[in-house]
Every structure is written in C-alpha cells, then in structure tokens.
Amino acid sequence: MGYDCAMARWILHVDMDAFFASVEQLDRPELRGRPVIVGGLGPRGVVSTASYEARAFGVHSAMPTAKARKLCPHGVFLAPRFARYEEAAAATRAILSAFSPVVEPLSLDEAFVDLTGTERLHGPVERTAQEIHRRIRTETGLPCSVGLAPNKLLAKLASEAAKPGGVHIVHEEDVDGFLSPMPVSRLWGVGPQTARKLAERGVHTVGDLRGVDASLLHSWFGPTAGAQLWRMARGLDDSPVHSVRDAKSISQEVTYPEDLYREEDIARELRQLAMAVATRLAEESLLATTVRIKIRWADFTTRTRQVRLPEPTNHPVLIADEAVALLRRGGIQAEVGVRLLGVGLAGLIAATFRPEHLFVPSQLGAALHQVRSRHGAQSLSLGFPGEGHPRRGAGILDPGAKDGVNGEMDERGRGRGGRGGAGQRDRAVRLPDPDHGIPSGQGLVLLPARG
Ligand SMILES: [Mg+2]
C-alpha cells in the first residue's frame, strides 16, 4: 500500500504576540518593558496593537486611540511601520516554510502550517512545534505563541491557550477536556450576537453546546450555521490548510464584440463578471478584501480602480455592488465606447475563519452559487430593477481565463440579442430583500438567462 489513508492530521498555528508593538520594542530597546501602543494617532485613530504592558491598563486593539490615551497616559503611542512588519512576517514565513510546503498566512502575524506527514523528515510533530517556536524567537527576536492540534479550529484555540509566548499541544484524546470549559464565544464565527442567542438558551460553554441536539441547533440557527456549531462543539474541522501562494488574486475579463456605450449595459456586464469571480472565490473557499475593476475604452486607454472592502466577503451581490460603485465613481465617458471590462478580487484570505456577519451564509449567495455550479455559469444572472435584462450571449466567460489573460467572448456567434424588454423583466424572479448584505430598498431580481 504505501499510502496511509488514516494518517493523523497535524496542524500548527503560529500567532505572534502583540506583533507590531513587539517589533517596535525589538527595534528600540528603550521601549522594552514600557506600554507601547501602535495605531492611528489622529483624532479618529484606532489601536492596532497594544503591548502586554499597555494591556495591563485595559488598552486593546480596535479601541479608539483617544480612549487608550486616557487609560494609559504615559504610554508610548506610535504610528505603524507596515514595511518593517512585513519584513518581520516574511522572516517568520521563511522559517515555517522550512518545515512544510503548506503554509497559509492569515494575516501579518498569524499562519497555519500543515505538519501532516512531516515526521519522517523532521521527527515527532511535538518536537517540531517546539523547534519552530524556538527558531522564531531566536531568529526574529520576536515573541510568538504556537498551537498544535489535529485541525485548524483546534490549532488556533491552542495557540490562544499558549499565550503569551508558549506552545500548547492538543492531542486527539485531549480535545473534549480542552474545549468543554471554554466560553462559546471563543469558537470562530461565534460573535456577540450568536453568543447572546446561545446564552439566552442556557448555553455558555462549549461543553453546554455539545449537549444541544443537532435538530435544535438547526432550528435556532438554520441548517448551515447549526451544523457548523454542532461540529465545532466536538472539535471537528476538516478544512484544509491553503497554501495561498498561488491564489493572490482572481480575475476575469471580457472583450466585447461591439463596444458598450450605455452605463446600464456596462454595469450589467460588471455584475456578470463579479458573479463569475465570486463563484471561483467560493469554490476555492476564499474571501476577498479588495475589489478591482478594469475598463478598456475603444481608444485602448485602460483604467483600473480598486476599493478595499469593509469586511472580507465572497458574496456575489456585495462584490457586484462594489464593482458598479467603482464604475460610477470614475464616471462614464459616454462618447467613447467600452471595449473590455474586467473584475478582480485581491487580498484573498481563507474562508475558514470569518467574521460573524458571514457566519450564516447569505441564502441568496449560496443559492446563486448552487444554481450556477449545477446548471452552468450562464444559467442565472444578477440584475437590478431598471437595469433590464443582461444581454444574452454577450460576454460569454471563459472559465479558464487567468489573471491578465482576456477571457474572450466565445466564438459561437451569439450577438447582442435579448436586450431587456418589459416582457423579459416580467419573467424575472423577484426576491424579498435577502437576510443581509443587500442595501435595503434595492429589490434584487434574479434573471434566468435562458436562450
Ligand atoms: Mg497576534
């Protein structure tokens, strides 16, 4: 045989301790032992990182800097130096890559490493975890915490348990004892709202949560979130560690056989492209933090515009809205037609761990993904009242198109037929405002793109 199907998974999570503040204390020894707060220094600034000395005063990240100054008037307040932090993060990633080819950075100061099957090369994983911890400390000079466990969920909780500066290992047989006493809010995706809902039903700890029937969780939170809570309560998580090296961005472009002049046509095509890239994003279990559009005019001048999203998302409607907003922000040159459009997503992160507002996936987004993956990318389009029907047959997407490569329209000779008329709009399926994510008042229509 030679292939061990039952090979135990070992996932390591590294989390640098008070990363930005630690880098400042490393570079400026006079700051060591003092409360250091790195963040926005302006009147509306927010704390990025507080050193442990500053945390003793109640300062924490995401707190307004003005409040931190009140709590800790003798603190050292510094603006972030991202270039320096990137450098330190790269040094850490290089150490991690020496132990496994599968490294997934979550942010500048956190990464997952898949250590499954590395024993033959590096010895027992427990020793590897200690060695990684030691090398990061000695080679970067920065403190970090390391968690080692059978999956990502537990590894992340283990590194939290190891803070500050330790190594915590959770073996399969320790999972129940490790999880049970934890407050449910420690589980990823369980934000204040979900935690409150659980508390109202007498569920405070992960142990309490494990005692709740799957059917009950289903009725409280719906099938998707209910099932995820049920699994997390048992420490179950089979999500893979994504080596994101090869997926820095996802984009799709279309060159049109006839130039587009009307803003509504351009917007509609952008929505189609947004749908295509959002689908690929979801297929790769990623969320995007940046949306870009690319416009090439008939005279071949090309513009790109991008916006950073308030929250990472894979929601096709949110992505489409941002793309269209970017279009409108830049203005339309009505007299020069549009020859090519592109939508790109960047700043991609793993969808495993996501903010609460995405924990219950939008039923609309999920439905769109489902229909399109079953019936093909052309089966369903997004439209908004007043924007009419997507031009059928125009802008057929090449699913193989990669970054910077034009996904040319197919050559099946489909013209610009099917321009949205009243009859077609009548066929549109009008949905009630989805549970979230769609700006209210913008009644979304799903348009079956037959023919
Ligand atoms: Mg950290």
Account of the protein in words:
The protein is an alpha+beta fold and 451 residues long. It has 3 domains: 1-178, Reverse transcriptase/Diguanylate cyclase domain (Alpha-Beta Plaits); 180-233, DNA polymerase, domain 1; 247-448, DNA polymerase, Y-family, little finger domain (Dna Ligase, domain 1, 2-Layer Sandwich). The chain has helices at residues 19-27, 52-55, 65-71, 82-97, 119-122, 125-140, 152-161, 175-179, 192-200, 206-210, 214-233, 263-283, 316-330, 363-375, 422-427, and strands at 11-16, 36-39, 47-50, 76-78, 103-107, 110-114, 144-149, 167-169, 249-260, 286-297, 302-313, 338-346, 349-350, 380-383, 429-430, 445-448. Magnesium ion binds at residues 15-16, 19, 109-110.
Keywords:
DNA polymerase, domain 1; 15 helices; single chain; five-stranded mixed sheet; Alpha-Beta Plaits; Dna Ligase, domain 1; disordered C terminus; alpha+beta; binds magnesium ion; 451 residues; globular
Q: Say what the CATH topology of the largest domain is.
A: Dna Ligase, domain 1
The whole-number mean of residue pLDDT values reads 79
How many β-strands, per DSSP?
16
How would you name the CATH homologous superfamily of the largest domain? DNA polymerase, Y-family, little finger domain
Please tell me how large the radius of gyration is: 25 Å
Beta-strand level of the residues, as a percent range?
15-25%
